[in-house]
Write a structure and sequence with these properties.
The chain is mainly beta. Helix content is 9%, strand content 51%. The protein has a 14-stranded antiparallel barrel. A hairpin with a 2-residue loop joins strand 12 and strand 13.
């Protein structure tokens, strides 16, 4: 069981022609979606990580620009969708006690689809209270696709993820009630080199839909796999809004059925709605246990700067048998 995986390259004399064809396809799709929405196509993490992220991602502190695969790639780097070689459905629930925030989500990634493009989708309902007292609730739908092309030196993966959000923010003594809705998304690149080394980069929220919650950010990452152990690190920087975020994570397959995960995140962005942001130090961990066609995943994350802030996420995965 490898919810986080690092595909290696296979020898070929030239870059797969499918890569060129796919880039043209994705570029055309991006132009059409941008024309349909004044908010643009692309989005990413802000001060608050998505509550609907897979437990595999939460347990590794949200790392995944280079190592993300499966449903985690829908949130960290859509290029990782091309690294997922199975078809699964994930049903889960996340809870953050400090924000009194709850997230219900269902998502699926199909890495067995015929052709050179792989895809995935996610829907989540999220509700909670921000640091400034505003109540926030709404819907989040994501749709991603990725393609890959191989040479004798590397496997190149390119992905895009569109996202539709419909959020409501309640009124406070100093702020009016407001809503935020529209399309946005991410675009990313991942390169798997020989020797199990993988590099990634993603541009999140190219056109800002909500500058406080979804600021423009550039993230880069590196990952390596060594005999059942994956170690990865990410860093992200704001384009208009300052603040660095650093993440490191690891996953180890203890036995074929059990994978243990851990991670650490340092964020200068503080909490969403916080007037004077306090840097956050998140420590996380979790596991995934596979039963034939099913798996149970769980994760817990603790902010060491605010000991009362704990995030818990659990999910059930069903793996669709491969069609012959």
């Amino acid at each position: 069981m490898t919810p986080q995986s690092l595909p290696t390259s296979s020898p070929e004399t030239t870059i797969n022609r499918a890569l060129t064809r796919g880039v043209c396809l994705l570029s055309g799709l991006g132009l059409r979606l941008a024309a349909l929405s004044v908010c643009g196509l692309l989005v990413g993490f802000g001060p608050m990580d998505p509550g609907s992220m897979s437990p595999a991602g939460v347990a590794m502190a949200g790392v995944g620009v280079a190592s993300g695969a499966g449903t985690t790639a829908l949130y960290t780097n859509p290029a990782g969708l091309a690294a997922h070689k199975s078809h699964n459905f994930e049903f889960g629930f996340g809870r953050d006690n400090r924000h009194r925030r709850s997230s219900f989500f269902v998502q699926s990634v199909d890495g067995q689809a015929p052709g050179f493009v792989q895809g995935g989708s996610s829907y989540a309902y999220d509700s909670g209270t921000l640091a400034d007292g505003r109540k926030r609730s709404g819907h989040d739908a994501r749709f991603g696709m990725a393609l890959s092309g191989q040479s004798d030196a590397a496997n190149v993966m390119l992905g895009v993820a569109s996202r539709y959000v419909d959020l409501d923010y309640s009124a406070t003594a100093t702020q009016k009630k407001r809503t935020c809705s529209g399309w946005t998304g991410d675009v990313g690149l991942a390169i798997a080199l020989t020797g199990n080394l993988r590099l990634g980069v993603v541009w999140r929220n190219i056109l800002e839909l909500e500058p406080e919650e979804m600021p423009q950010r550039i993230a880069g990452g590196v990952a390596i796999a060594l005999k059942g152990v994956i170690v990865a690190g990410d860093a992200s920087w704001g384009i208009d809004k300052p603040g660095h975020v650093y993440r490191v994570g690891a996953a180890a397959s203890v036995i074929d059925e059990l994978q243990l995960r851990a991670g650490y995140k340092y964020s200068e962005l503080g909490r969403l709605g916080e007037i004077n942001p306090v840097p956050a130090h998140w420590l996380s961990g979790g596991f995934g246990f596979r039963f034939a066609s099913y798996s149970i995943d769980a994760a817990v994350a603790l902010d060491l700067a605010r000991a009362s802030e704990v995030q818990v996420t659990v999910a059930l995965n069903y793996y669709v048998p491969k069609m012959r």
